[in-house]
Structures are given as C-alpha cells and as structure tokens.
Amino acid sequence: MPTIHEELDRRQLLYSLLMPVMNLYVPGLDKGKGLYFLFVKAETKTPGGLLARPVLTSYYNSDHFKTRPYDPFNVYTSPNEAILCVDSFQSMYAQMLCGLIMRDEVLRVGAVFASGLLRAIHFLQNNWKQLAHDIATGTLNPKITDAPVRECMRKILKPNPELAQLVIMECYEENWECIIKRIWPRTKYLDVIVTGAMAQYIPTLEYYSGGLPMACTMYASSECYFGLNLNPMCKPSEVTYTIMPNMAYFEFLPHGSSTSCLVNLAEVEVGKEYELILTTYAGLCRYRVGDILRVTGFHNAAPQFRFIRRKNVLLSIESDKTDEAELQNAIENASLLLKEFNTSVVEYTSYADTKQIPGHYVIYWELLVKDSAIAPTDDVLNRCCLQMEESLNSVYRQSRVADNSIGPLEIRVVENGTFEELMDYAISRGASINQYKVPRCVSFTPIMELLNSRVVSKHFSPDLPHWTPERRRS
Length: 474
Ligand code: AMP
Description:
eight-stranded antiparallel sheet
C-alpha cells in the first residue's frame, strides 16, 4: 500500500481520540497502566527500493509513538525497547515480564486483534516458569539477547520472590479460567478487536478473562485508518464504527444490488450494506478495500457502520487473509503430488481451527484413489500439506515462519461420499439442487460434526514453508 509521511498525523489523530471517548465510559484510567502486547515486524524493500513494512510497524517506529509526550491516560507497561524488538519471542517475553512486574498497576489488557492477546496468554502458559524465575532472582533469561531490551529490563527487574510465588501459584494449576483477572486483578476491560473475523475468539477470551468487557475501539487498515467506536463498552455484537471523513475520501458501493453508482459518505442509507471504496491522500484512487459494512444509524450527521464481513476471505487466523482463488490454487498445486499415485482430489472444503493456539488451517479432502494398490502414503499427504502452505500468500507464510502465530496446516481425508452427504444435508435445509455449491469454508456445527465423523486420516505439514523478509522478484 502506498503511504506518505503526513499519513502518520492522521493516524495519530485517530489514536488521540480513543482515550477521551473511553474516559466517558470508564473513569480512572489515568490511575494506572495499560498492558498491551504490541509488535513490530522486519522491514523489507520493494524491487524499486522503497521501504516496505506493516502499517503498525511503521507507526511504532515513528516519532509520534517513540517520543510521545507523557499522558497519564496512555501509560503502557511495555517499554518502547520491548515493543520495537523485531524478534517476536524476545519482544513478547520482555512485554510479559513487565506486565507481571507491574501487575498491580494494570487497568486494561489488550493487543490489536483478539488473536494477539490469546497468543500472549499461550506464551504465558509456555513460559511462566522461566518468567517466575526471572522475577524471583531479578535476573533476565539468557535467551533475551537484544541489547536495548536487556538494558531497559535491567532497570525494571528487581528480585521479588513474593510476586514470583504468586505467578507460580496462578499458573501452576491446569485450570486457566479467569487467568487474566487472577493475575491482573484491577483490569477493567480487554482492549482488543473482536469484530469481523476476530469474533471467533470471543468465547476463548471470555474464558480466560472471566467475562471482562471487550472494547473494540477502532476500525483501520493498511490502506487507511477509517474511524472509531463511540460506544466502546458495548457488546461485541453491537459494535458500530463512525467513519472520520477527514481520513480519506470515502465512497460506498451498494452491496448486492446491480447498480454500480457510488454513494457519498453523507448519503448512505440506514439498514443498507455497502462495500467501502477509498481515495486516499497517499494515492489510492477509488480503491476497493474489500470490506462490507452495514449502516446502523448516525452520530449527528456522521453515519455509523457495522462491520459485516470481508469480501472473498475464506480463512483467517490473524492478519492472514486467504481467499477462494488462493485456496483453490494451493489445492491444485498440492494435488500434483498425488498424480503418481493415480489419485485426485474430488472435493474439498476448509476450516480455520482456532480452538488451539496457535490456530491452523484444516482442509478436508475427499480423494479418488483409482488404484488402491498404490494409494498415497502418509508421507506424501504430509507433503501435500506443506505444498499447500508453500502456495499460500506471504502474510500466511510469515505468520507460520517468523511469528509462529499459525500452526502447521492439516489435511483431513474424509470417506468417499462425504461431500454428497454434505449436499444432501444442505438440500434438506432448503438449498436448491440446481444452485448448490460446495461451501469452500465451513464452520456451522452440524456440518463440522458430519465432516469430522467421516475422517479417515489426518496429516500435518512436516516443515515450515519458505519465507524470507526479502521480497522476491517474481
Ligand atoms: P490489514 O490491512 O491487514 O491491517 O487489514 C485491514 C482489515 O482488517 C480491514 O480492511 C478489515 O477487513 C479488518 N479490520 C480492521 N479493523 C477491524 C475491526 N475493528 N473490525 C473488523 N475488522 C477489522
């Protein structure tokens, strides 16, 4: 996405409105700190030599963030050095350690997306012993080698056996229900986006937080920041975002209607759904973001929108977005490995399994084995998983390789006839036989139950796909 320096001011403007709005609903947030898990990623160069990095990496690396003036409403437990460390393990470790050390001061816990906060909890599950050791002894885990992080942790870390004991007591038990409230008892709410694709994480977050409110404060993208939620303590299902007209020029394409006439921001109609179209200061012109929004009402004259869904995205675990065409391409590439076994993929569907952390893609395959004497081996099906991963986009592969935030892709081979049963089921629920299409992504429980009851074998990617920070010329 093209961007320009002044775009940082617009982003800063939106950020600066979040706490004044929150302060209307949750008093006293200036009396403590926010435990936020924020990360940067490695920078790359485009073939033309321009710097390329994720939008948040760009923001956290800017002076707007790094040299922000003291504001009692925006004090974080994470030092800049920890946030700006590109090694995701070291960054998370230092942020978690600071969060534990400052546990009594923490009033809100968050990450950008729900998936990020769950990753942090999972990290605590895996690393609490070492973290408690560091707190007890006042020494830093030798795996933390980043010099700025070591230097700043040296000032923060002091031996505190009592706190270490508390961490051990809370984390030692199998039961992690309510862990956020147990470790950070003053937490008033979770600051995470749980709308759109992130809604899948609500039950898990409720479990770990003991039902703390979840605030979805803003709606933004790499292309442009859009707006904020003026009622951030509402239920996730009721979240609406008010688009700020000064962030870009916004137009709206009526969704699901044959007209291609664009509607201006001030002219959208309540109840209707639109696709968001942007013209940005940085040079995008009538660009289709791919988000479908529904107008729910107005704040003064500014329309408010519910995020409905992203067009064409089938699978998403965190920042990855895999659409139907990409999935199809990945399946085609993987199925080439089956050729020598005289086998083909007759049908497939997919599922984003986020029950475990990290989540992973599950692909259901129905195979046609033409000669059972040379049926594909376990090994080749495992390699099919890896081949699919190799075919997926670089955001997916980066999450797999560098961030470890997506687990190995899984193929579940189902019995012959399973997809026919799936169709029978859809028809029994009113689908038209003529117009029936195999769903390329599933999540509806009865369908999942049907598929899972027909699984004959499961296969996982045996290795990491290829990914390097350098962009390859293609
Ligand atoms: P990215 O450019 O990768 O950061 O992704 C931006 C996309 O994430 C948006 O276009 C939306 O599809 C989604 N997104 C961002 N903020 C929200 C939100 N508050 N609720 C739902 N989806 C969101």
